[in-house]
Design goal:
Number of helices: 2
Oligomer: single chain
Strand order of the largest sheet: 1-2
Number of strands: 2
Radius of gyration: 17 Å
């Protein structure tokens, strides 16, 4: 099978069976002291994510479906100083983040 045909077949199977609304969804509980993050783009590849983080990633990874999701541009940090404290800002409140995040 040609590479283009293989790629098309993989994409077709992913589209047809990737998002089945009839499956019962597992509720993800985030441990106290941790923060959940939705990865997109290059963060969906573990190898690419580890290259960005400059370390191996050993925590949990879940495939999730977001209902009524709206992207928010509410985080800024300088990647030039990775030893700096990072915070997520929402509604005049802040949550400290213990890892570098790109948004």
């Amino acid at each position: 099978m040609k590479p283009a045909q293989t790629y098309f077949l993989i994409m077709l199977i992913t589209i047809l069976f990737g998002c089945n609304k009839n499956l019962e969804k597992e509720v993800i509980t985030i441990e106290k002291g941790k923060v959940g993050m939705i990865g997109y783009g290059s963060l969906m590849s573990k190898a690419s994510m580890e290259k960005t983080l400059k370390r191996t990633y050993q925590d949990s990874v879940y495939l999730v479906h977001l209902k009524d999701y709206q992207r928010s541009w509410n985080f800024f940090s300088s990647v030039l100083n990775p030893k700096r404290d990072f915070f997520y800002s929402k509604d005049n409140d802040t949550i400290q983040i213990y890892n570098r995040i790109m948004n």
